[in-house]
Amino acid sequence: MSRLMASPVTLQQIADKAGVSRMTVSRALRNAPEVAASTRRRIQALADALGYSPDPLIQRLTSHLAHAHRRNEGQVIAWINSYKERRPRKGQIPFVSIYRGAAARAQKLGFQLEEFWLGEPGMTGRKLSRILYQRGIECLILPPVETGVGHLTMDWDKFSPVAVGYSMVVPRLHRVGSHHLHGTREAIRQLYRRGYRRIGLCISKDANLRLDHACLEAMTYYQFRTPKKYWVKTLVQEKFSDEVTLRWLKKEQPDSIISHYEWLPETLARGGYRVPEDVAVAFLNLDYSKPGVTGIDQRYAIIGETASDLVIGQHYRNEKGIPATPHTVMIEGRWVDGSTVLRKAVKV
Q1: Which tens digit of pLDDT belongs to each residue from 72-118?
Q2: What is the pTM assigned to this prediction?
Q3: Domains of the chain, CATH where assigned
């Protein structure tokens, strides 16, 4: 004998149980800031306990209508720039590429990206929150901070935020960034296939921290899997020094170096080393101002596109505030052959 399925729980039933209006329930389930946070949590817990499940067809229709309306309004996504300078310098290519990718994707989806600079006189996170809220801007993209790691205090419950990269550590938000562990391991694999064995890592202390030690972990794993005679002590510098770098090179004698320092070949040349004949160099972040070098293309534009996808998705689902379980989307970089690594296998 077949069992009859129970009737779905309605918003009105939840409202009756909670002692509030149906509209309040609807807003609470959409995380609307007009409803107090404590009330939202109480209603959401009650809905879960009752087994409430929204109708996906109605959700899709609502999202479609909202999207069509917002396309006409030119909905804004705020790009929160925390750099010391408002306009990125030539060396800040990732910042520019991520921005362009995010802007292009936002425009395709009916939104526009607008930059807000935290370096404005008197600007704070709280003040920016008020400005954005008064303008009806709910979507935020937080690109990487310029140096070190960052934190920002805003009225998060009013916004749908997404961080780019790993340097924004407080609060813990949904984020998209490069898959640095994969990228470094891919660089090691490519060098190994070409016959290199004494592979060294030269990185700044700041980059190591901002990348959550991913590059160092990849190198440690490589050394774990290879004979000790091939081990090269990793060079982590507080501030780059030609003297320290060349002294390390002479002592460790790597046949190849993985690094993010774009000027490393010039430093090696001043020490009498030819690149790639004497030592190969693979870059962790290809510098697009120097075409032809070898390394990992981090695909910054795709990272920007994904950031827009994530924040717009949150917006349509009306997900606001600091997530209980932050999600991280990692974009895999790709190896690009160039002139700073020999393409043929070398003798070891």
Answers
A1: 445 899 999 988 777 655 446 677 889 999 999 999 999 999 999 99
A2: 0.78
A3: 1-54 (1.10.260.40), 68-178+300-331 (3.40.50.2300), 180-298 (3.40.50.2300)
DSSP 107-138: HHTTEEEEEEETTSTT--HHHHHHHHHHTT--
- CA angle centred on 113, ends 74 and 136, rounded to 5°: 55
- What distance in Å separates the CA atoms of residue 128 and residue 80, rounded to the nearest whole number? 9
Q: Is the bond preceding residue 33 a cis peptide, omega within 30 degrees?
A: no
Q: Do residues 309 and 139 touch, judged by C-beta distance below 8 A?
A: no
Cα–Cα separations (whole angstroms), residue 211 to 63, 79, 207, 313: 36, 21, 6, 26
Three-state DSSP string of 42-66? HHHHHHHHHCCCCCHHHHHHHHHHH
Q: What is the CA radius of gyration of the chain?
A: 25
Beta bridge partners of 329: 176
User: For residue 346, how many other CB atoms are within 10 A of its CB?
Assistant: 16
Output b/e per residue, 99-126; b: 16+ Cβ within 10 A: bebbbebbeebbbebeebebeeeeeeee
Q: 169 in helix, strand or coil?
A: strand
Beta strand pairing status for 334-336 and 295-297? antiparallel
Helix (H) or strand (E) holding 201: strand 199-204
Token look-up 């990793």 returns: 234
**What pLDDT digit, counting tens, does each position of 6-30 carry?**
568 888 889 998 999 988 988 888 7
